[in-house]
Amino acid sequence: MAADIPLGDRLDDDDYPAYTMGRAAEMLGTTPGFLRAIGEARLITPLRSEGGHRRYSRYQLRIAARARELVDRGTPIEAACRIVILEDQLEEAQRINAEHHHTPADNPT
Predict the structure, then answer these.
(1) Which runs of consecutive H residues, i.e. helices, occur in 1-109?
(2) Is-contact 27 19, C-beta < 8 A?
(3) H or E element: which one contains 73?
(4) Rounded CA separation 7/39 (Å)
(5) CA dihedral over 12, 17, 22, 25, signed as positive or negative
(6) Residue 28 needs a FRET pair 20 to 30 A away by CA distance; which of 2, 21, 99, 103 works?
(7) Contact between residue 94 and residue 104 where contact means Cβ atoms under 8 Å apart
(8) Which contacts (CB < 8 Å, 24+ apart) does range 61-69 have?
(9) How far from 89 is each of 4, 6, 38, 44, CA to CA, in Å?
(10) How far is it, in rounded angstroms, from Cα 73 to Cα 28?
(11) CA atoms of 94 and 28, how far apart (whole Å)
(12) Per-block average pLDDT, block size 10, for the chain (109 residues)?
């Protein structure tokens, strides 16, 4: 399926699983074990290549980087994952709330 999408479009897609576990860990300055741990805590779920290898998207790396910041400050990994999940849920709720407050009915012409 990915072969049907032009390479440029895949590289611009924040959700495209472009990074191997080793490359993702290197980019984050962490270990593959950290990525496995946040996967086990259900913060991110990497896609799997045909060979079964974990692959990460840019969006997932941003989420992992936020968790790493918290862990580096002394937050236990499970708590860091929960905090990031709650932050993400809050951001989504705020986005939805903003959409509801800016409906076309609010702006009569």
Answers:
(1) 7-12, 21-28, 32-40, 58-72, 77-101
(2) yes
(3) none
(4) 27
(5) positive
(6) 2
(7) no
(8) 61/19, 61/24, 61/27, 61/28, 63/88, 64/24, 64/28, 64/30, 64/34, 64/35, 64/38, 65/28, 67/38, 67/43, 68/28, 68/29, 68/30, 68/34
(9) 32, 32, 17, 14
(10) 15
(11) 28
(12) 59 86 96 96 93 94 97 97 96 94 62
Structure tokens at 23: 């490359």
Q: How high is the pLDDT of residue 8?
A: 59
Token digits for 41?
């805590």
Cβ contact 67:43 at 8 Å? yes
pLDDT at 13: 83
